[in-house]
Records
---
Amino acid sequence: MAKTIEKLLGNNLKWAAQKREESPEYFEGLSKGQQPLALLIGCSDSRVSPSVILGSDLGEIFTHRNIANVVSHTDLNLLSVMQYAIEVLSVEHIIVKGHYGCGGVKAALEDQAIGLIDNWLANIKDVIELYKPELDRIEDPHERFDRLVEINVMAQIQNIKHSSVYRKAMREGRKVQLHGWVYDFRTGLIKVLTAE
Ligand code: CO
């Protein structure tokens, strides 16, 4: 394990040196501030790191990640990120990015009891309950799982719309576009579900 952590720190030294070589002003530029173009709410899964799969540079995406990309109205952490992104950074796009094969969504679908996380996944169980007729109609369990991942993204977009932060932004006439994406780590590609 120690070796792995040392490898990460070694990678950081190499990366920083390479960046400085490519552009001597790179870090100085970043230290002046940030003007990200989007807030991205994604899953914590180590296989779906947004800046890696979007090929984006530092300073481009403001990020919040949690298990199964949930937007909860009692999550002070997420609401603070959203408020800061909209009101201070003037971000004009919020992306909810789910992913096929999401362990959190699967645990909720299979009604697994894992511990503390069950409380968090109750947010997804609410979604399952709401869309039960549609999900029940899908016979293939893999297909049902994939569909729930998509439905979950759309449900979290609805949750953004109902949040006090988003509603205030709309009252103030701010331009905030909502995007629903699902990433597929079997292909490396993103499926766009909605842009509204
Ligand atoms: Co996930």
---
Amino acid sequence: MRAVDLIQKKRDGQALNKDEIEWLIKGYVNGSIPDYQMSAFAMAVYFKGMTAEETSHLTMAMVVSGKTVDLTSISGVKVDKHSTGGVGDKVTLILVPLIASFGVPVAKMSGRGLGHTGGTLDKLEAIKGYQIERSQEEFVQQVQDLGLAVIGQSDQLVKADKLLYALRDVTATVDAIPLIASSIMSKKIAAGADCILLDVTVGDGAFMKTLKEAEELSQTMVSLGKEVGRHTVAVITDMSQPLGQAIGNRLEVLEALQIMQGKGRHDITDFICRLAQLLLKLAGQKRSLAEIKKHLTDGQALQKFEKMVVYQGGDLKDLYRPSKAKFVTKIFADEDGYIKELPALAFGLFAMRLGAGRAVKTDFLDYETGIVFYKKVGDPIQKGDLLAEIYANEKLSENLLTEFKKNVKIDKEEMKVTEILKIIT
Ligand code: URA
């Protein structure tokens, strides 16, 4: 086989067979196919797409490009979740201990944030001492002992994705549905859980900008999961505004703690309960929302979370410490009405500039900085009300403050907010 022939075949809109796709992925991982040919192939996929069969072959070729995690020694139905990325997305910090509080083991490998999107690992590392690197044996042992673990993804898992994702990132080929679906599902399949909840975000702060695209991605991923016998469900969720109140690593940990103490905003609390209900159902437990809310707010989820933090080396005292940011600037509303827009992308990028996120992979993070919103889309607001607090380690310029305020849109009309837009099973 020659790579050039396979690139040409895809460029001309033909489907590749299993052997051809396997050969391509193997060759790319062992270095016999160079970046320039793989880039051309990715671009051909971007324009011509892939059939369901091709996407399935690609996903499985990626799964076997590295090690896979064997969770069979853990008793019970093991679950995992994945978000396609967002701003202020602290769901994993809350959902994982909540699910574990029902006796369902959660074995989760998470990633870091890049650009305007945050990553769970960065949030956990905002807790002094928390170790995200664990061997496979330690990971399995922890889930056996505690019922939950959130660690960093091993370098040995899905080697093809590491190479391919870095290549896509610099060749404008990230946002192709077959490539996103195979990238995410190869990692989920390799991570070994029996049930997978996919949170597919849609809106200006997400990869998927329209509901139609999000549906296509969801359907593709759910089919890939089911093909290999994993119970998979996708939830399409709104990412037109940041999730919850906080953006920024330490601030998001604090918000997660508040939610697990029953002191969080009702909308994000209810949203997480609904996700938990779906995931528990996948794992064979039928629970009412009232029951789930009780576990979330009466300390049962919090107890699991604290146990996980301690097990992974985290300092419990540091966990509850407020942000050490030097400057906390309060932003007040200039007019009456309802919050109409808090664009997730703009505020994600704003928080990134404060140091809460990375523009490039090698950037250092400032765990203490970020934004806390006291009003969200749909909330009534009056002139002089506290809208948000900005946590920074440098004094904010007038220009930055003006930019912040310009992004908040207030309107006279009341508006409705829906967090879960669709469920794909
Ligand atoms: N997240 C992934 O893991 N892969 C993609 O391709 C896009 C988002």
---
Amino acid sequence: MSKILVTGGAGYIGSHAVVELAQAGYEPVIVDDFSNSKESVLAGLRAILGRDVPCHHVDCGDAEALRGVFRQEGNIAGVIHFAAFKAVGESVQKPLAYFHNNVGSLLTLLQVMPEFGVENLVFSSSCTVYGNPDALPVTEATPTKPATSPYGRTKQMCEDIVHDVSGASSNKLRTILLRYFNPIGAHASAKIGELPLGTPNNLVPFITQTAAGIREKLTIFGDDYATPDGTNVRDYIHVVDLAKAHVVAVQRLLDRKAPDTVETFNVGTGHGNTVLEVVQAFEQASGQQLNYSIGPRRPGDVPAIYADATKAETVLGFKTETSLLDSLASAWKWQQTLG
Ligand code: UFG
């Protein structure tokens, strides 16, 4: 069984990846500082997997503590680096915290990995690196645009760092960069899911909290975009599908099928949906009527973006399986367990 270090493994995407890795026969080991996750996630993982997943309460930016994890675990075959701050608005208010945490933890990881002979890395990137694209859908070759937030800049910087480090002959590093589109939903068991702290920034947790009566109504940020119904278009991917992309990426690295440098993949469904379509699909999936109104545009939102998912399908053999309706049904089921 290959041991995979999962930084941010107690987070939303990380926890779902831990489940898929374990069920695919890997031995995931979590590293998380719990700055944006809860210890209760570990109980959810135990409930799904029927056993404990080893977890180190460590900040990835702490080189000595991270070395301690590598030393104690031994024989780590690869790392999936999820750990990062991810709130776009907060990153504008606290840019230093974002650069320090997101860039700093990657640098520390890249420093420590070779000390223990670990050469395989999967890195969590984002479709935010494309900015507002000139043409849709975006392929991996679509040029990146200047980021619209410090958060987006950290993802671009991290991609650049990985390229530079992999390109240096003194380093042995094989990396797969996964550019996520919009992850939504929860594990079918409803034992793990998204746990937003405070008021959610993202659409789906805001919708489910509104339906649960926690929020009064959803405000749709603008309906005057040049899209089919005037609201923004995004590519909403079920979080379990996204988690599975990490399993195939890890497999590819361990099988030595990846080149000795960097490979980049979009991870999305290949389909765009408007905000209004998501609201309607949620109503259908949940049987709830959603209270919403149209508000002004949100600064920084791109009008439309969705993935060309061809490369992930042809090279990784990865294809999403869950419909928007089922994804939203899982989000609603999870919300109901939260009360
Ligand atoms: N939206 C609303 N009302 C809300 C929340 C969101 O109308 O209360 C709309 C947004 O305007 C957008 C869509 O729902 O059109 C999705 O918004 P999210 O905040 O859920 O997701 P984003 O597409 O803005 O952001 C996501 C990730 C970021 C990443 C970004 C890249 O959350 O981490 O994609 O485009 F940087």
---
Amino acid sequence: MMRSLTGLALLLPILGGSTAAQDAPRSTSWRGDDWPVQTSPTPRDDAMEASLAGIVAGMTLEQKIGQMTQPDIRYVTPDEVRTHYIGSVLNGGGAWPGMRKDAALADWTALSDAYYRASMSTDMKVQVPVIWGTDAVHGHGNVAGATLFPHNIGLGAARDPGLVERIGRATAKQVRATGISWVFAPTLAVGENRRWGRTYESYSSDPAIVASYGAAMVRGLQGGLKGDGDVVATAKHYLGDGGTFQGVDQGENRASRKHMIQVQAAGYYPALDAGVQTVMATYNSWKDVAASKDYGKIHGNRELLTDVLKGRLGFDGFVVSDWNGIEQVPGCSKAHCPQAINAGIDMVMVPEDWKAFIANTVADVREGRIAMARIDDAVTRILRVKLRSGLFERNPAATAWAARPEALDDRALAREAVRKSVVLLKNGGALPLAPDKRVLVVGASADSLSNQTGGWSLTWQGTENGNADFRGGTTLLAALRKALGEANVTYSPDGSNVDVTRFDRVVAVIGETPYAEYHGDIRFPRPVAHSQLRPSDRAVIDAVAGKGVPVVTILYSGRPAYANDLINRSDAFVAAFLPGTEADGLADVLLKRGHDFTGRLSFAWPGSACSTGEAPGDIVQFPRGYGLSYGKAKRTVRLPEPAAPAACR
Ligand code: BGC
Ligand code: BGC
């Protein structure tokens, strides 16, 4: 199906610009009008269920609520984990042991060990190990020295679920090296509007790609669930995060029920089938405008969290809320939200105000706002995942990969992923680069691991990092110097004060600067034109183009960009997305070192500054599935350059 879609896309009159209405229909994996009926892939284990029931029956209310509470490591000590029976901790983006960005693996495992031992020395009848969760969304992003893979948007272009599964295995091992056993990935968003700041966390706007990748990532991360190289995975953010109105992060999804079921939710069915053990609720709300039905914030919606997810879809793991997500439910605060627990949230990510949360929730149960049966169900689910994943059997800080630096090193795999994920949009013969030629490299992104890795890299936003912070990473500039020879490469960040005509080729590396979540939103009515958003990138191209020397442009971006002006001023153009730490993979294809370009767009590429997705009427320059190879014709056509207006309408 996907294959024929790709073929079809190539026949479209893409160079003149087409509209999405002409685009090939979406391929979806579930075509039913209602939620599918699924069962857990893990058969019920009566002996385990009996022991779970025994443990829960022996717990006090405070112990149960403690199990449902997840503070951030910045705000909870090991001793507090012990005294408050804390069930889980997380390190949010940019949280490291001792708040040191360069924390060593031994620091990570020492902290993990301290939390674990604290959780195992409470006055509970049965000691319950704490589970630590982390955002390893493109490799273990919080850890200095970990190889970082391309963000999901690039992996989507690789069209290779097997690669994604191997990245999942590698990521699990990296995470295990820090003594952590739970990862908040994969993101199963189907990104529908490129204004959204999390577009790069989405594999594709094609639900079929999200569906096959989501399951592959779950298999890769979880493996057999109990092994030393396995971690618990999270399907997030349930439900509809990728389809909010105007791409507003944490905004309102206005999809019809059918669209939600067939498109936005497409990744969940196979991920649940693959045995994903946790699901994270999403910040957004859902209003089915066509049916005049308002589901409100998903964190407070019982129909979706309980009836659909735990009922029809057969999910028997636990649901975790997002970072302070409960406070957005009407009537709730960061530290109090019986509505969310009653709706089906089992564990509450309450990074800072966890003490008040515990007190408030204990009172909720005592005063009848939450039934004890709901609490018992939540705790049973949490303990079930802990039992299944082997946490009761061994200290996660003392497993095979713990504190082993080689576990962070997946350079060859990341290089392969980069090679497969970059998409050649234009080549009039400027590529491949030849090793004996003189190359002028321009653009600040050429020497920036920060722009190359994007958000969720060492820090939450991916900002405040220098190249040295990414131990062992390779910029494209460094990769080109290695590949072409130091003497053949000259670097000028802004392309000024250099005689371009002395060179055989110019390689311009431009791109967005890092962002995460709502920080990356481009709010309506702002046009989404790269040159307008980053005039310095256009200036660098203008400084080198039109001088008789072919210009090869590489664009780093977390979203498809309207860049026709930049493409027209370049002789070859590569959409490289956010490739991560290993730019050698880019050099491999730029030089055609035994590898051709095989990446194909996983999102349509816009042909105007106000076309924000693949909705009817949007102008598509390159449809999903587009991508050139060296083998293909080199004819280039001047693209239309509709000017970006001051504001979109
Ligand atoms: C994000 C989640 C993430 C969590 C923990 C939230 O703001 O939406 O994707 O897992 O923070 O860092
Ligand atoms: C955390 C992130 C989290 C974000 C949400 C940050 O302080 O480090 O992990 O996603 O807050 O607002």
